[in-house]
Amino acid sequence: MNTKVQLDNLNVHFGENHAVKNVSMTFRENSVTAIIGPSGCGKSTVLRSINRMHDLTPDARVTGRAFLDGKDIYANGADAVTIRRRIGMVFQKPNPFPAMSIYDNVIAGYRLNGRISRDQADGIVESSLKRVALWDEVKDRLRANAMELSGGQQQRLCIARTIAVKPEVILMDEPASALDPLSTLKIEELIEELKERYTIIIVTHNMQQAARVSDVTAFFYLGELIECGETRKIFTTPEKKQTEDYITGRFG
Amino acid sequence: MSTASEEKLEIALTHEAENHKWRMDKKAGGDAAFKGMTALFAFAVLAILLLMLVELAGESFPAMRKFGWRFVPGKEWDAVQGLFGALPYLWGSVVSSVLALALATPLSVATALFITEIAPKKVGGLIASLVELLAAIPSVIYGLWGILVMAPWLQRTVQPFLAEKFGFLPFFQGAPYGVSMLAAVFILMIMVVPIITSITKEVLLTVPQSQKEAAVALGATRWEMIRMAVLPYGKSGILGAVILGLGRAVGETMAVTMVIGNTPQISLSLLAPAYTMPSVIANEFAEATSKIHTSALMEIGLILLFVTLAINILAQFLLWSVTRGQKGGGRI
Amino acid sequence: MTQLTLRKLKNSGMTLAMAAATLAVLIPLILIFIHIVRMGASSISLDFFTQIPRPTGETGGGMANGMVGSALLIALASAFGIPVGIFGAVYLAEFGGGRLSGAIRFSADILAGVPSIITGMVAYALLVVPMKGFSALAGACALALIMIPIVLRTTEEQLKLVPTTLREASLALGVPLWRTTLKVTLHSAMKGVMTGILLAIARISGETAPLLFTALGNQFWGKKLTEPIAAMPLQIFSFAIAPYEDWHRLAWSGALVLVTLMFTLSLTARYLGRSKQKN
Predict the structure, then answer these.
(1) B94 lies in which domain range?
(2) Best of A56, A101, A106, A168 to disrupt the B interface by mutation (most B CBs within 10 Å)?
(3) Cα C7 to Cα A56, A114, B201, C3, C14, distances in angstroms
(4) Does C208 sit within 8 Å of B49, measured CB to CB?
(5) Do B153 and B96 sit in the same domain of this protein?
(6) Predicted pLDDT of residue C110
(7) Same domain, B167 and B209
(8) Is the full-model pTM beyond 0.95?
(9) CA distances from residue B163 to A44, B177, B266, B271 in whole angstroms, order as listed
(10) What ipTM, to 2 d.p.?
(11) Residue ranges with strand state E in chain A
């Protein structure tokens, strides 16, 4: 399979704090890669480097390279706006726009690129909502405010909003940790379906979740990539002792 | 608090306790008296507000009885003949304030956005401090600058230009006086911008980072993020800030009095002198010739009070939801 | 031009617009300060601080009576306004909590937005009418009425910041509530309260409108509190609107002195506030 995203000697500093140290790894196209590790190990920081979210943080410094389809997204002249179109992100706490309806939320990102016809918009909204299995639940109240939905529904709405702009990669930062078990299950089923079209990278503190949904797992500790490999192998016969200690619950 | 002062306090407290170990039965009486005294002072605030309404209403009664409702649309103001009508002042106040707000609002919101979203933190902080400095300048000093610097400048440059190019419109007709509705609008705009900017800045700071990240993650440019996530979130707070600014503009006295020309007339032209409610009170009250004159001025004061009260209550209501979210319930 | 380029152009354009707006907002500040310093400094002399205004047409003179008058009015107003504000805040912070307290707080906030000229009219009705004349007392009354809501709200906020554990410790040692409040709670909040008071004083030192028909102003030295008295803002006003160049210069100097005073007060207040935070 092709490499969709590749990190090469990625380092992230927040002022004095060296949060991510010399990370190099690849992410296969149309696969699900889980990034696991104890709190503070840098998993979210690595994830956010992939869609250049650290541009928003004044004292963050990212060095090294990150390739999307072979092109370094941190190169001089690389355009963050275009990159974020191609690499979408779903956050830990669902964050739909509270001033917009469900319909407007889904189409919000797509609308950035100019006017589209009503029919076109309707089509995109419907297909996006269907793909996240939310369509049937909201189709009769698309104009209702997005905040009227439950937590799990809001998160699926955010996923619909993300895929409406037709990204190639979807980054998920602990997408189910704020949700109830039933919604969590729905999200996990969704991830399984989404990987057919997208490359998914998911950060999770829930090892069982990682074992369930991912093809590849990467274990991080104190800002360093300790081990990365096929999920089944990581969870049954890890190579590094630290990995084994974490998997078996000896720390974190 | 550092441990050194904590220790000092503990010593002081023990000292106090020793002094009062044997006065416990007096404690209850002392506390009740204390509560009563402080309550009295607290109610003073309510009393002041009530006093305002009562006194103004009472003193305006003679004028109200003489002119009734005709006072409001009345156009004549002649102290000698005993004719009093409030319309020119209502017109002056409304027009100057509304126009000033129309100009000030985009400037203020843009500046607040610049401070919170665009400028680096330190620069933003500096600009915010400078804006606060503007808010602290007394009205009379704005008036001083207005009448000695700005109005003559308007008379020399802006007004002739407007009269020449746009004189076919009723808004720019008449001779350039310098002191005019236009001058009042400008000075009010300058005075009201700091208030709206400060409050809008506070409102914008309450926008959660997660909202902004959601927009950015979809591939929005910074301006698109502001339009999509920041401004809609802060909508009601910004409106509250604007309305608070309106309240200030309506109540502004000295600066306006010094640059508006103090002529009770109703004209569509911005170049013409005008008169506002606070200005006529400021100019005529001390030398009011008759009881009915004073009463009419009191009635104008009453109208002014009601208008500003209504505006401020509306603004407080809009800002209430924003202040509630702040730590310590800080008053804006 | 692609859609993307258009979007980026719009972004740059709006950023520029916001920067321009900020500049436009700051320009009057710079202009006013330059004018005050330039025009004001030229007339500052010993005379300015020691002499009263000369009759119209004559050169020279100063604003000594206005400065003394302002100081007197502020002192009188504070003597009344500060205790009322502080003790009222004590009530709200220590005993308050019901609907009545909410009403009082609401009133204080509303009063802060009432035009100061109306406060002057109230002081007129309260003191000028019964006394049948304008007076320094009436002016001080007007200023005190303006001060009270400000001091009340800022003091209440500071008192609320004092941790409950401090009060409880004192009460547990047997100190009565009233003494706890005065010696412990208020003492602990003192720096913040002082900051609020300084800001309130800075505010009233620039107030003109409420003095127009209470203190009225005076060409000479006021002899009694029951007589009209000069005040700096009033003098700046009358000098500015008069047709004499000389008086204009005095007005600028007065403005310079007034602004310097207010600036100093605000800086002191801020310095106090910051050193409190460090603790």
Answers:
(1) 72-326
(2) A56
(3) 19, 9, 25, 6, 11
(4) no
(5) yes
(6) 87
(7) yes
(8) no
(9) 63, 11, 19, 8
(10) 0.91
(11) 3-14, 17-28, 32-36, 60-68, 71-72, 87-90, 169-173, 199-203, 216-221, 224-230
